Amino acid sequence: MKIKIDKQACSKPLDCRLCLDRCPEKLFGTYPGRLRERGVAAGDWVIFAMFPSQCTGCLECVSFCPQKAISVT
Ligand code: SF4
Ligand code: SF4
Fold first, then answer.
1. Distance 40 CA to ligand 1 centre (A)
2. Is 3 in the pocket of ligand 2 (CB under 6 A)?
3. Is the pTM of this model over 0.70?
4. Residues whose CB is less than 8 angstroms from the CB of residue 66 and which lie 6 or more positions away in sequence, other chains included
5. If DSSP codes are grouped into helix, strand and coil, which group holds residue 60?
6. Per-residue pLDDT tens for 8-54?
């Protein structure tokens, strides 16, 4: 499966978390969008699909995303 995420539409994935929590395969992850520095809290989290080959195409993520930021083909 090909999973695309519009990162502009999903600007605060850790505030939403719907796809992170509801994907039955737990395929989504986040990483800090700005360079990490020791002692400075990470921020600007970005969401991505870690294991797209494991996607079953159930489309739960697409239907739950309030920003319509995810497409699965
Ligand atoms: S389509 Fe289903 S299995 Fe695939 S990423 Fe979305 S929720 Fe997860
Ligand atoms: S459900 Fe949509 S808005 Fe929420 S974290 Fe996932 S991609 Fe972002």
1. 33
2. no
3. yes
4. 16, 18
5. helix
6. 999 999 999 999 999 999 999 999 988 888 888 888 999 999 999 99
